[in-house]
């Protein structure tokens, strides 16, 4: 019987080998990137813990407590822990052109975290308590002294009433809001409706319903007072056309 002299086609095997090699390459690169991100995150937490080692938002004067309550807020203090801050920022997919505001920012940890872990152009905390505001400014000074601030971008703290301070350039708003009164929440919703459509709002308390404020997602994340607080993600829609 005559033997076959047809050439052997090795292309399928070659493609399999190349595909396997590429899969291994990308898996290794992804694992390396994840490890680098973890190390960067741990380093950032360590730096912020050092900055805030003796700075706390707990304990303000009775005069301040009464004033905050009269404004419809709450003097009760709690903090979003770092892993939850990271989860929120990852969920929002923050971009460099975004502008972040924390309404009721306490001693300013969340705005500082956003500035240090993203390339966002502006991160601002607004706080009614003068004591907590002064402590946030103390932390901001330490961040600057440690060379941790990017001078081409903005990290700032504002002392004032969140219903009176201008945050019209916001693209992202965070507010803990767990103890905000319903009248205060309604005032804030009225302000939000005047802002640019596409605005994203993250709050731990449900907002008064409005057809232009759409609840996109809700998830449970840890805080200083709970292992699973509800974080609600809203988006502001454009007003209907006539």
Question: Can you tell me about this structure?
Answer:
The chain is of the alpha/beta class. It has one domain (52-236): Vaccinia Virus protein VP39 (Rossmann fold), CATH 3.40.50.150. 40% of the residues lie in helices and 17% in strands. It has a 7-stranded mixed beta sheet with strand order 3-2-1-4-5-7-6, with helices on one face. Helix 1 (11-51) packs antiparallel against helix 4 (109-117) and helix 3 (82-92) packs across helix 4 (109-117). The longest helix has 41 residues, at 11-51. The protein is globular. The model has no long low-confidence stretch (mean pLDDT 88).
Keywords:
242 residues; alpha/beta
Short recap of the structure:
The chain is 40% helix and 17% strand. It has 242 residues and is of the alpha/beta class.
Outline the fold blueprint.
Layout: H1 11-51, H2 62-70, H3 82-92, E1 99-103, H4 109-117, E2 122-127, H5 130-145, E3 154-159, E4 172-175, H6 182-192, E5 200-203, E6 213-221, E7 229-236
Parallel strand pairs: 1-2, 1-4, 2-3, 4-5
Antiparallel strand pairs: 5-7, 6-7
CATH topology: Rossmann fold
Q: Whole-Å distance between the termini? A: 85 Å
* CATH secondary-structure class: Alpha Beta
- CATH structural architecture: 3-Layer(aba) Sandwich
CATH homologous superfamily label = Vaccinia Virus protein VP39
Number of strands: 7
Q: Helix count, per DSSP?
A: 6
Number of domains: 1
Read across the widest sheet, the strand sequence of neighbours is 3-2-1-4-5-7-6
Largest sheet: 7 strands, mixed
By secondary-structure content and strand pairing, the structural class works out as alpha/beta
Spans where pLDDT lies below 50 across 5 or more residues: none
């Amino acid at each position: 019987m005559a033997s076959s002299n047809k050439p052997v086609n090795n292309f399928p095997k070659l493609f399999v080998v190349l595909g396997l090699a590429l899969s291994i390459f990308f898996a290794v690169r992804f694992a390396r990137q994840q490890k680098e991100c973890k190390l960067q995150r741990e380093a950032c937490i360590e730096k912020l813990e050092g900055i805030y080692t003796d700075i706390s938002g707990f304990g303000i004067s009775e005069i301040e407590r009464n004033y905050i309550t009269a404004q419809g807020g709450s003097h009760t203090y709690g903090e979003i822990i770092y892993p939850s801050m990271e989860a929120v920022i990852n969920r929002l997919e923050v971009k460099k052109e975004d502008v972040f505001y924390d309404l009721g920012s306490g001693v300013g940890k969340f705005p500082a975290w956003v500035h240090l872990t993203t390339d966002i152009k502006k991160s601002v905390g607004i706080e009614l308590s003068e004591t907590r505001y002064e402590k946030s400014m103390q932390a901001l000074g330490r961040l600057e002294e440690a060379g941790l601030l990017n001078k081409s971008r903005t990290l700032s703290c504002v002392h004032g009433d969140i219903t009176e301070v201008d945050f019209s350039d916001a693209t992202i708003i965070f507010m803990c809001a767990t103890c905000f009164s319903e009248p205060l929440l309604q005032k804030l919703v009225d302000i939000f409706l005047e802002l640019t459509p596409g605005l994203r709002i993250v709050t731990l308390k449900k907002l008064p319903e409005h057809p232009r404020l759409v609840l996109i997602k809700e998830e449970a994340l840890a805080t200083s007072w709970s292992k699973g607080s509800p974080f609600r993600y809203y988006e502001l829609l454009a007003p209907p056309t006539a």
